[in-house]
Amino acid sequence: MKNNYLVVLVLLLSASVYAQTGRVTLIETFTSSTCPPCVGGNINLEGILDDSQNDDQAVSLKYQMYWPGNGDPYYTLEGGERRNVYGISGVPTTEVDGTTEVSTGNLSQNILNSAYAVVPRVTIDAHYEVDEAAKIITVQASVTVLEATPPGWRLYMAVFEYGTTGNTGTNGETSFEHVMKKMLPNESGKVMSPMQAGETFNWTEVYTFNGNYNLPANGISPIDHAIEHSVEEFSDLGVAVWVQTLLNSEVMQAGYAEVGLIGLNENESTIESAKIYPNPAYGKATVAFQATVTEDYKIEVMNTMGEAVYTCTLLSVEAGRTTHDLPIDNFADGLYTIRISSTTGLISKRLSVQN
User: Fold this and answer.
1) Which residues are CB-contacts of 297 (< 8 A; sequence separation ≥ 6)?
2) Strand 228-229 to 212-213 pairing
3) Domain limit, last residue, from 239, 259, 279
């Protein structure tokens, strides 16, 4: 751990959060695969986030809990500490920017719109890189404050998996999105010293996922990060970054890190974000991505053997949000990797097909 940039890293993936100009809201959801109401709550949450008006506006992060019953096997002690920050006693519960608590099934667009209207107090610029073979993730973050700050503001980094399918509990859910896997350096974040407006706080974390994959029997005996991990696919990791104070739990700003090509400088990737919905998909799936320049974009669907089962090139795609329907009705059930690429950008996403 150190707050200067690494000089040499052999890495397979890289990403960055691009310069922010507006509010990005943090949506933290406490859920469990042993909680029947969590099914509807997650459906409501993902349905709202799939709406294009929320693209690049919100960061979603889920903490699986150790109750009801024996709880979710993807429960972590760090997730439990996040629950303690808010004093949450039941699931499904969602915290919006640390100040608005709502049952996940009651989350609405109006609640998010109110959160988006809050003026951000910092901007976040972050990068992450993953060495899949070595199971190492490196996260670098720069926070520029927009006002003089009091003591106690903290920078948080959370590594999450975009989609998981190994965790099947008692409530019927077979896949989960944005499941928190590890907080860096831990659930306490990094305390930021008081600063004047315009000053920047920099921090770098390097973390190695130890041991092998393990899916505990339940939430009573959570993952021990010292000897094991619960990451299903290291190619499917993302990072959420935010600044928060524990004085009143207010989140000042949040941001995602987006996957890009090795060697690209910050802001160079022509693909800012991508999403696949619905996921899992039945008969049809749509890819939505945000392009920064007019260019040709290639979409590939790869099976678990690394074979391309579908390829399409979209010519002269204009900058902005683009959607493309995937003809998956003839695909075999299972997991697929969706690659969206251009001459200077690449994003990979996971898709579960259940026809």
Assistant:
1) 271, 289, 291, 313, 314, 317, 322, 340, 341, 342
2) parallel
3) 259
Provide the residue range defining the domain that includes 326.
Answer: 270-353
Structure tokens at 102: 């709502």
Query: What is the pairing mode between strands 58-64 and 25-31?
Result: parallel
Query: Both tokens of residue 23?
Result: 């509010």
38 neighbors 92 (Cβ within 8 angstroms): yes
CB 183 within 8 A of CB 240: no
Q: State whether the Cα torsion 52-30-258-311 is positive or negative.
A: negative
- Same structural domain for residues 244 and 326? no
Task: From 138, 87, 110, select the one nearest 249 (Cα to Cα).
Answer: 87
* 37 membership: H or E segment, kind and range: helix 36-49
User: The pTM is what?
Assistant: 0.73
Task: Please list the pLDDT of the chain residue by residue as tens digits (355 residues).
Answer: 333 333 223 333 333 344 456 899 999 999 999 999 999 999 999 999 999 899 889 999 999 999 999 999 999 999 999 999 999 999 999 999 999 999 999 999 999 999 999 999 999 988 888 888 889 888 888 889 999 999 999 999 999 998 898 887 899 998 899 999 999 999 999 999 999 998 888 888 889 999 999 999 999 999 999 999 999 988 888 899 999 999 999 999 999 876 543 333 333 467 767 778 888 888 889 998 888 888 999 999 988 777 889 999 999 998 888 899 999 988 998 888 888 888 877 777 778 888 7
Q: Which of 259, 291, 317 is the last residue of a domain?
A: 259
